[in-house]
Write a structure and sequence with these properties.
This protein has 183 residues and is α+β, with helices and mostly antiparallel strands. It folds into two domains: 22-78, Beta-lactamase Inhibitory Protein, Chain:B, domain 1, CATH 3.30.1450.10; 80-183, no CATH class. It is 20% helix and 29% strand. It has helices at 2-17, 28-35, 82-85, 94-101; strands at 40-43, 49-54, 62-67, 73-78, 106-110, 115-121, 131-139, 142-151. The strands form two sheets. Strands 1-2-3-4 form a four-stranded antiparallel sheet, with no helix packed on it. A four-stranded antiparallel sheet has the order 5-6-7-8, covered by helices on one side. The longest helix is centred in the first third of the chain and has 16 residues, at 2-17.
């Protein structure tokens, strides 16, 4: 049974890895046939469209594809790439943030601080097995600051196999916050 599960996992990962990248000059028909229907389509002023492919709550990408008025790809980018996350600034609205990062993974309100925190799964290539979240803290629906949280595996083993952990399988999570501004 475990062998079949491993085979299915490898096949699923390899299928994702073999999907061709979206490149400038491709047609909307070609992109749709290779990548499926987008999560959302935004009609751009002056013609053209912006197709958005969201993968939350489990994925770590938000692919955006800009088409010109003739239906050809002009540009493509990942809204959850580090350079795009750095564009989130204090004073932005919830709508502006979601337009850039896509639908969030979760939302939590903290009544004592008056903050509502939206989070997104993001890639953590250098530390596999560690869930990484980009958090945007809002107060009155305006960005207050951002932070990043790391969630270590539940077995409590970290830092090269040493750490806090017990035989019960419970572990310790560690959060690291990095703010970019205050309000």
């Amino acid at each position: 049974m475990k062998m079949w599960l491993a085979v299915l996992l490898v096949l699923g990962v390899s299928a994702c890895a073999t999907r061709p990248p979206i490149a400038p000059g491709q047609s909307a028909v070609q992109v749709r046939s290779e990548h499926g229907a987008p999560t959302r389509i935004i009609v751009l002023p002056g013609g053209g469209e912006l197709w958005q492919y969201a993968t939350q709550p489990f994925g770590t990408t938000f692919v955006q594809v800009k088409f010109d008025a003739t239906g050809q790809v002009v540009e493509t980018w990942d809204g959850l790439a580090a350079d795009r996350l750095a564009r989130i600034r204090p004073g932005m609205t919830v709508v502006q943030v979601i337009d850039q990062l896509g639908p969030q993974r979760s939302v939590e309100h903290f009544s004592l601080s008056g903050e509502t925190v939206y989070d997104w799964n993001i890639s953590n290539i250098g530390n596999p097995g560690t869930a990484t979240y980009f958090n945007v803290h809002f107060r009155d629906e305006v960005v207050l600051r951002t932070s990043t949280t790391y969630e270590y595996p539940r077995d409590g083993r970290f830092f090269g196999g040493f750490g806090i952990g017990g035989g019960s399988g419970s572990g310790v999570g560690i959060g690291i916050n990095i703010g970019i501004g205050t309000r």
